[in-house]
Amino acid sequence: MNHIQKEGFLHLFNRSGNVLDFNTSGFNRFTQESVGVPLCEKYGLSKGKSLESFCQEAPEDDVEKLFTDLLEYYEFTIKGSPKEKEYILCKNISYKSRLNNVL
Q1: What is the distance between the alpha carbons of residues 51 and 55, in angstroms, rounded to a whole number?
Q2: Which bin fits 59, alpha (ψ -120 to 50), beta or left (φ > 0)?
Q3: How many CA atoms lie within 13 A of 42 on its CB side?
Q4: pLDDT 10s digit of each residue in the chain, 103 long?
Q5: Please, what sign has the CA dihedral across residues 73, 13, 62, 29?
Q6: From CA 11, how far away is CA 96, in angstroms rounded?
Q7: Coil, helix or strand for 78?
Q8: Cα(39)–Cα(58) distance, integer angstroms
């Protein structure tokens, strides 16, 4: 996964320090189950900053695993109609495409 792809996923999942609809303890449980590390506990930062820190230093396979699990969680649990979810995903894909064109 290249830098642009990571940034696209981080932009989707990290909203001003919040990751999806998780509270801190829920995010720690989720990341512990996904990649074996409770991220906020490990880094002592917000959920978003902890996610970013993990993505900078973790093995590529772990980052991809966590992104896949977060995307599944998003797809199946975040409230909103399928059209709303599709709009948000397309918006973020468009953002990633614009980044590719700039770089």
Answers
A1: 6
A2: beta
A3: 18
A4: 777 788 888 888 888 888 988 999 999 999 999 999 999 999 999 999 999 999 999 999 999 999 999 988 888 776 555 666 565 566 555 544 544 554 4
A5: negative
A6: 9
A7: coil
A8: 11
